[in-house]
Amino acid sequence: MTLASTLLLAFAMSTDAFAAAIGKGAALQRPHFREALRTGLIFGTIEATTPVIGWAMGMAASRYVAEWDHWIAFTLLLLLGGHMIKEGFSQNDDEADERPTQHSFLRLALTGFATSIDAMAVGVGLAFVDVNIVSTAAFIGLATLTMVTLGVMLGRVLGHVVGQRAEIVGGVILIGIGTLLLMEHLGMLA
């Protein structure tokens, strides 16, 4: 793989995480750069690890991963998004102004994993191509770190505009990402 194709792959793998990060940033009470960077590091680490896992699984698991990755991602994003929507509707007006200043590690890790399952499938495919998986995974992780950090900060603006129901918007974004992934893998999107 050339450097240009590696960079394109890295940014393509980070787009789902970027969209999810916008939702995560919108659900927070004015997230600061430190929280955006923390979120980016969690997502980036997961996104860099999953293609290596997929690459290691190689041909033995390629059929399994390819058949189920979209269902796993869809289910996780649906559950996480549904939880965010439920939380948004259960808030009263006083609680809406008291949105958290950061998300739990577990919530970020689950979202990061859900948006990186496609990177695992890509890693399986990379096992059959002459590629340095370590540098490719590093590029994917750095692209995701950058895009997620920017996404959380963009979500900060969106959260300020949307106001008290920002968590609902974040949940809808996660469900939308999961639905698009499912539709793409089922061939519903050309």
> What coarse outline follows from CA principal-axis ratios?
globular
Low-pLDDT runs = none
Give the DSSP E fraction (strand runs of 2 or more residues): under 5%
> First CA to last CA: what distance?
25 Å
Structural class by sheet pairing and helices: mainly alpha
Helix content: over 70%
- Average pLDDT confidence is 79
Number of strands: 0
Write down the secondary-structure element order: HHHHHH
| Rg, alpha carbons | 17 Å
Q: Biggest β-sheet: count, sense, barrel?
A: none
Secondary structure tally, helices: 6
Number of separate domains: 1
Summarize the structure in words:
The protein has 190 residues and is mainly α. The protein has one domain (3-185). Helix content is 83%, strand content 0%. It has 6 helices and no strands. The longest helix has 58 residues, at 33-90. The radius of gyration is 17 Å and the shape is globular. The chain starts with a helix and ends in a 5-residue tail after the last helix.
